[in-house]
Design a protein that fits this description.
Structural class: alpha/beta
Order of helices and strands: EHEHEEEHEEHEEHEHEEHH
Radius of gyration: 19 Å
Number of helices: 8
Distance between the termini: 27 Å
Oligomer: single chain
CATH topology of the largest domain: Rossmann fold
CATH architecture of the largest domain: 3-Layer(aba) Sandwich
Number of domains: 2
Number of strands: 12
Strand content: 15-25%
Helix content: 25-40%
CATH class of the largest domain: Alpha Beta
Shape: globular
Length: 278
């Protein structure tokens, strides 16, 4: 991350909506819309949040997408029966208007590395391996004392998979993901297509996996919202917690954002949207 994006003291007040164009909302899930749990499977979405997202999608003309490290299948199970446009597996898979796409199939050694990770987890209680089909995540939320050996394990797995993969650190997790897969690339992909194209992009996320999204949003003329404690980030604004962000979303849901003065004020903060050619 470059020094120009080092901003550990961004505003704690609710950010304005972007001006100059209708918004496109890109929302991380774990740590942003919902609190973390001991395992990804233990996370739940309440009916209030599900309804809130459905209303937001309607009020933005469909320009709402989830941007997650979870697989699309995991997102769909979490949000069921609702289903949203989404970037899954840190950009390794996507769904836009019901059309699915996916990064190249994993290499032959992927299954061998996955098996080795599972063997390690079986011998170390608290370590959880999540096989996402094209990515592998090793969670240490229930075994924080094993973070260093897990990192070494994943680094060894990366060496075996070769240049088509990269290591991605997150909140109590280390992952192997396709090298070209990032949340930022996923957002750029979405912004090239309707209903997102030409809109003012807003991305909210909480951890290091979201920084590529914050940087992409800047190039698109928008600004990101960091959720959680202050730290160096490419985001422009910050809210302190999941609860604070959900409250901000509810205010957004209730607002028509139709006043020119509000648009002008917000435009000065967020800039103007950038059109992406397909």
């Amino acid at each position: 991350m470059t020094e120009e994006y080092h901003n550990p003291t961004v505003s704690l007040s609710p950010p304005p909506m972007p001006g100059g164009a209708a918004p496109a909302l890109f929302l991380d899930v774990d740590g942003t819309l919902v609190e973390f749990a001991e395992t990804p499977q233990a996370v739940t979405v309440d009916a209030t949040l599900r309804a809130q997202l459905v209303r937001l999608r309607a009020s933005t003309g469909g320009a709402l997408a989830l941007i997650s490290g979870r697989s699309l299948d995991s997102l769909d199970r979490l949000l069921a029966p609702a289903m949203f446009d989404a970037i899954g597996t840190h950009g390794g898979e996507w769904r836009i208007g019901g059309v699915h796409g996916r990064a190249v199939p994993p290499p032959l050694r992927f299954a061998e590395v996955a098996a080795d990770f599972q063997t390690f987890a079986a011998a170390h209680p608290g370590v959880l391996v999540e096989d996402k089909g094209i990515a592998l995540a090793v969670h240490t939320r229930m075994a924080p004392h094993l973070a260093a050996p897990v990192l070494a394990l994943v680094q060894a797995g990366l060496a075996r998979l070769g240049g088509g993969y990269r290591l991605q650190k997150g909140a109590a997790v280390v992952e192997l993901v396709p090298a070209a897969a990032t949340k930022g690339a996923g957002i750029i992909r979405l912004m090239a297509q309707p209903p997102f194209a030409g809109r003012q992009p807003v991305f909210a996320g909480d951890d290091l996996t979201d920084e590529s999204g914050f940087m992409a949003i800047r190039t698109l003329g928008g600004c990101g919202i960091l959720i959680g404690p202050a730290r160096p980030t490419a985001a422009c604004f910050r809210l302190p917690s999941v609860a604070a962000f959900r409250s901000w979303l509810e205010v957004l849901n209730e607002s028509t954002f139709s006043h020119d003065g509000a648009r002008h004020e917000a435009s000065a903060l967020f800039g103007s949207p950038v059109t992406i050619s397909q």
